[in-house]
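Example record

Each entry pairs one chain with its bound ligand, TNX.
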Amino acid sequence: MFERIAALVLLANLVVTCAWSDHVTAQSVTSLPAFRQLIPLPAVVEPAAGAGFEITPATTIRVPGGDDQLLRIGRFLSDFIGIAAGPEPPRVEQGRSNTGAIVLQVGEVSQAGAEAYELTVTSELVTVTGRTAAGVFNGVQTFRQLLPPFLEHDGVRADKNRPIRAPAVRIVDSPRFGWRGAMLDVARHFFSVEDVKRYVDLIALLKLNRLHLHLADDQGWRIEIKSWPNLTVHGGSTAVGGGRGGYYSQRQYADIVAYAADRNITVVPEIDMPGHTNAALASYPELNCDGKAPPLFTGIEVGFSALCVTRDITYNFIDDVVREIAAITPGPYFHIGGDEVKTLTPSQYVEFIERVQTIVQSHGKQMIGWDEIAPARLLPTSIVQHWRPKTTPAEAVARGAKVIMSPAERTYLDMKYDPATPIGLSWAAFIDVRDSYDWDPADALAGVAESALLGVESPLWTETVANMRDAELMAFPRIAAIAEIGWSRGDQRKWDDFRIRLGAQADRWSALGINYFRSPKIPWQAPPTVEK
Ligand code: TNX
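Structure tokens for the complex follow.
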């Protein structure tokens, strides 16, 4: 009897060992130098024998005829490779594949979800198959991370000591969560269209798929509203510290939205209300209960401003704003803020949120709000963004609400790493790189199970963040940790592996000119070149 059990256990072990011998664990991905650059960690990585694929002057990129989305992804990859391998970037050709090509296609993938993809690299062919174009884009980002980091430099050239080679492998991958976001506060300090596009480029590398833009706050209104022009003319004219401010015209905003969409990123516009509205109140006296416009505000205190919730004109104003922004936002979401209102009674506040929810719905969008909105009667499509430490939206979840996880003490990129960080705040916590990685969204909140979670988002508030160099210092490397939490299975993630893979980003991030925080706890290293 015992022998039989022992034999069965042995057999079971063998089966498990065989199942795992053809794909590797997080630890082994990390231990193989050729795969150490992968962040987020893919679900399945099966290294294969052979020299891998070399990009040469003859390499072409193949996409199916008539598929514009794949054509654009093909051009993205061609632009990325640039003139490194030959006198021209690789040609993007429509039609059947042949040897020596990088083939992008939509088709069957053995993992579930629209964003799933399979990437195979052999010495003859690279194939990226996505369930949808989004999956193909994700697969292209993985392929990019298998290529040498020097390619991230513009105009760089390969040579025989420095070939452009990706290791032979089969990767099958899909994200854990559909919502993998970054938020940029362009209200406290303004960020130009070029800055925002750069942020989009940097988060796309990590397979983030939402860019939440915090477009209005006490210190600035940053999006043109044609029916209320003074919002930007006056309300957009300054910033924290009294700087110059700025705003996006609707055309510029649409340009950002399209740029992001080409990188599988949905823009989520936020107009914070009823609080955080001094810029609007300063621009239109009729939005104030006393009919008097306050002066513009350039400090960093919060909680003092609110729209006059008892005046009808306030709701006409909100209707105009939501209508104009909804019309230039193809994504399904509209974020109404709703945080830190200190001048209304709880019932006034809830009534306001419910009325605004109806307005947002009438313009065809799903409402998102910071977690203060949880007590309101929310529609099944409305979404709560959790942020406040020591609170849980469990009651709203019990009533069916879905949650985006942005716990301040883990995900807030404006928090200092440690007391020596030159910029940033510390009200929620000092957030070391490990703190940002070593948690699981499904375990973080009592009464909020994984099934209620849409995913994770990392906000970058900019009271102390004045430009892109500051933004990058606060975002990198912590945003890579949040990206991996959003993408990779919890049981595959290990801090000891992640920190090694983080260290392996040094070359790529330097080539991209990212001003990342060189945390002394990360073994930053130049990744080895792929051997022949
Ligand atoms: C809280 S998070 C805020 C923001 C501040 C941030 C600074 C949230 C919904 N409200 O207005 O910028 O703290 O860390």
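The mean pLDDT is 93.
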